[in-house]
């Protein structure tokens, strides 16, 4: 079964602390993995995708096929990073995205 | 482009009433998705269309829910009759499947409250 698991509903850190939002997936094949973010009063939007291998707003995510994980990391959290983060998965033959249940990141000053 | 446009932004209705949510995708996009967001279950895909044709409706909860896409620039999600457990935020998203595959652009959502 295709599934995305985000084990933490809420992650709270202080400004400047490292952040890691966990994402594990279940998929038979080679999926595409994404992180979407929803800031307060804004639309859900793409943050990054694994095939781009890019860093956006200081965030990076590495696809670990052995551990079936796609954790989102940032070395130094900022207050403006506070948002809801969703990990998502897609197969190569479909436009469909399967989302995890999301993790709310709170960054305190 | 104004992005994906959803209406209404908020809807409050009584149990048993019909509810219609509307979505205008980004011009030129050929895939459209309807999602439901709740605290407990997160973001769930209800149905998606490709070139106006329903491709996967396995996420539609039950027969009370229906969705249509009569043309490339408009889609509706209807709940009839509505129930309190349908209260959630409903999102519409669109994408251009041939380029930047699977990058979906979301609307602002419709917050539905069924009393």
Relevant terms:
heterodimer; A: 109 residues; mainly beta; six-stranded mixed β-sheet; 43% strand; B: 115 residues; seven-stranded mixed β-sheet; four-stranded antiparallel β-sheet; globular
What does this structure look like?
- The complex is a heterodimer of chains A (109) and B (115).
- By secondary structure, chain A is an all-beta fold.
- Chain A has strands at residues 3-5, 10-14, 19-21, 24-26, 32-38, 45-49, 60-61, 72-74, 83-90, 98-99, 103-108.
- In chain A, 0% of the residues lie in helices and 43% in strands.
- In chain A, strand 9 (83-90) and strand 10 form a beta hairpin.
- Chain B has 115 residues and is mainly β.
- Chain B has no helices and 11 strands.
- The mean pLDDT of chain B is 92.
- At the A-B interface, strand 6 and strand 10 of A face strand 4, strand 5, strand 9 and strand 10 of B.
Shape of chain B: globular
Reading the helices and strands of chain B in chain order gives EEEEEEEEEEE
Q: Give the low-pLDDT segments of chain A.
A: none
Q: Helicity range of the residues of chain A? A: under 10%
Beta-strand percent range of chain A:
35-45%
State the end-to-end CA separation of chain A: 41 Å
Main beta sheet strand tally, sense and closure of chain A:
6 strands, mixed
Averaged pLDDT of chain A: 92
The gross shape of chain A turns out to be: globular
Could you give the distance between the termini of chain B?
35 Å
Secondary-structure element order of chain A, N to C:
EEEEEEEEEEE
Class by SSE composition of chain A: mainly beta
* Helix/strand structural class of chain B: mainly beta
Oligomer: heterodimer
The helicity of chain B comes to under 10%
By DSSP (H or I, 4+ residues per run), the number of helices of chain A equals 0
> Which value, in Å, is the CA radius of gyration of chain A?
13 Å
Give the strand content of chain B.
over 45%
Number of strands of chain B: 11
């Amino acid at each position: 079964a295709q599934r995305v698991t985000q084990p933490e509903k809420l992650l709270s850190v202080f400004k400047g602390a490292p952040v890691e939002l966990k994402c594990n997936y279940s998929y038979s094949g080679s999926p595409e993995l994404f992180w979407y973010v929803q800031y307060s009063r804004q639309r859900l939007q793409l943050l990054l995708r694994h095939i781009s291998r890019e860093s956006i707003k200081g965030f990076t995510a590495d696809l670990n096929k052995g551990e079936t994980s796609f954790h989102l990391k940032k070395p130094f959290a900022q207050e403006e990073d506070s948002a809801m983060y969703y990990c998502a998965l897609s197969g190569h033959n479909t436009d469909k995205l399967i989302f995890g249940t999301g993790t709310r990141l709170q960054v305190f000053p | 482009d104004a992005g994906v446009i959803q209406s209404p932004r908020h809807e409050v209705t009584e149990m048993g009433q019909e509810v219609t949510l509307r979505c205008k995708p980004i011009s030129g996009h050929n895939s459209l998705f309807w999602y439901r967001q709740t605290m407990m279950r997160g973001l769930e895909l209800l149905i998606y269309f490709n070139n106006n044709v329903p491709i996967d409706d396995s996420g539609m909860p039950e027969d009370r829910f229906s969705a249509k896409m009569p043309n490339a620039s408009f889609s509706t999600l209807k709940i009839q009759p509505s129930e309190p457990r349908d209260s959630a935020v409903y999102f519409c998203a669109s994408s251009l499947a041939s380029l930047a595959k699977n990058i979906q652009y979301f609307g602002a959502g419709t917050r539905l409250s069924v009393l």
